[in-house]
Amino acid sequence: RSLARTAASAKSHLSRRCYSVESAPERKVAVLGAAGGIGQPLALLMKLNPLVSNLALYDIAGTPGVAADVSHVNTRSEVTGYVGEDQLGKALEGSDVVIIPAGVPRKPGMTRDDLFNINAGIVKSLCTAIAKYCPNALVNMISNPVNSTVPIAAEVFKKAGTYNEKKLFGVTTLDVVRAKTFFAGKAKVPVSEVDLPVVGGHAGITILPLFSQATPKANALLSESDIQALTKRTQDGGTEVVEAKAGKGSATLSMAYAGALFADACLKGLNGVPDVVECSFVQSSITELPFFASKVRLGKQGVEEVLGLGPLSDYEKQGLENLKPELKASIEKGIKFANEN
Ligand code: NAI
User: Fold this and answer.
1) What is the C-alpha separation between 93 and 31, in angstroms, rounded?
2) Are 28 and 56 in contact (CB under 8 A)?
3) Is 59 in the pocket of ligand 1 (CB under 6 A)?
4) Residue 22: how many CA atoms within 13 Å on its side-chain side?
5) 250 lines ligand 1 (CB under 6 A)
6) ipTM value of the model?
7) Among the four residues 232, 297, 299, 305, which has the most C-beta atoms within 10 Å?
């Protein structure tokens, strides 16, 4: 027994050493839209991440101030601000991960699709630059509508000859974060222990939380109507924030947290940490749709494996069928835009 304990302690010492900050490889992370509502707290959270050695903050305005401010935090990474299109190349060069929260957010009464006309063009031009300056980077797409901006990015990369489906991610982590919080409250279980997948896409009914797979099991008995209410609240979580902010934008702080969580998972995967699994909207063959959010195992090349949906309740099966036409249309809209503009 004591031998086993010694071996276990040696192993944990070794793994601590392997992933210690001192031996963590150099990693450059670029944030595009870094002066925005999401960009600023996200820049701060990435500055706190010991896996980052170089943090590039890019926006069309305001980044010198954000970068000067964040750079004073006494953590590992060096921070540089880049402003305006002629500095975009420098911001991107050598990046391992590029996070994109650039573009306009929703106001009350707007759907994510209403943002399409402005954000599609922004995403297209940023992805054109990524293809040129850091074609091997993992791209974390936050800009909405994610259901369309990810297919736009894929088309831009295909045209440039740099597309690698393992390296393009729609960030749906905030849906998972919300589902976990709402489930913990209703099921009376500790929120820090909750795990559950959210699949489909990132808008309205395309957001499908799989509460039937939630762990730990609920302490309070959840009825069918409780599950339906939790599902609806997760799908409308973004709108809840948009309405509470009453015209001042959408989720920024919780989104920055979720974006930082997902980027950290990407960095861990790149660094060879085993069994890093997060939900993300990626190229997928688990349904008939070309892009779909599900659990994904992250590795040294990006996506290591797109995991299946697992067993679904009848309610979830119905939700899956209901979301497909809308998700399909949003994907096709993105592809069409990229090819016509
Ligand atoms: P914001 O308006 O506060 O910030 C956007 C920033 O993007 C601004 O600083 C702006 O100057 C910058 N920007 C505009 N065009 C640019 C360009 N061509 N290159 C670089 N930067 C550019 O908006 P906020 O609240 O930060 O939201 C950003 C995006 O994130 C929106 O599209 C929003 O819908 C989306 N979002 C996504 C979520 C998700 O779960 N994936 C959740 C919440 C928001």
Assistant:
1) 12
2) yes
3) yes
4) 2
5) yes
6) 0.99
7) 299
Residue positions forming the annotated binding site for substrate: 106, 112, 144, 178
pLDDT in tens, 212-238: 999 999 888 899 999 999 999 999 999
Residue at 101: amino acid letter: P
* DSSP state for residue 1 in the 8-state scheme: -
Provide the 3-class DSSP secondary structure of residue 283: strand
Residue type, 262: F
Active site residues: 202
Determine the distance separating the centroid of ligand 1 and the alpha carbon of 82, expressed in angstroms: 16
Q: What 3-state DSSP class applies to 213?
A: helix
Please tell me whether residue 148 adopts helix, strand or coil conformation: helix
Q: pTM for this one?
A: 0.94
Task: Specify whether the CB–CB gap between 126 and 149 falls below 8 A.
Answer: no
Structure tokens at 26: 């150099």
Indicate the SS3 state at residue 246: coil
How far, in Å, is the centroid of ligand 1 from the Cα of 142? Answer: 8
| H-assigned helices in the chain | 2-18, 39-47, 63-71, 88-92, 116-133, 146-160, 173-187, 224-235, 237-245, 253-270, 314-340
Residue 251 CB burial class (10 angstroms; 0-12, 13-18, ≥19): buried
Cis peptide bond N-terminal to 105, omega within 30: no
- Which of 31, 40, 59, 116 to mutate for ligand 1's pocket (most ligand atoms within 8 Å of CB)? 59
The one-letter amino acid at 287? T
Place of tokens 């839209």: 33
126-177 pLDDT, tens digit each:
999 999 999 999 999 999 999 999 999 999 999 999 999 999 999 999 999 9
Which residues are paired to 209 by β-bridges? 198
Does residue 63's CB lie within 6 angstroms of at least one atom of ligand 1?
no
Residues at the binding site for NAD(+) are 33-39, 59, 119, 142-144, 255
144 lines ligand 1 (CB under 6 A): yes
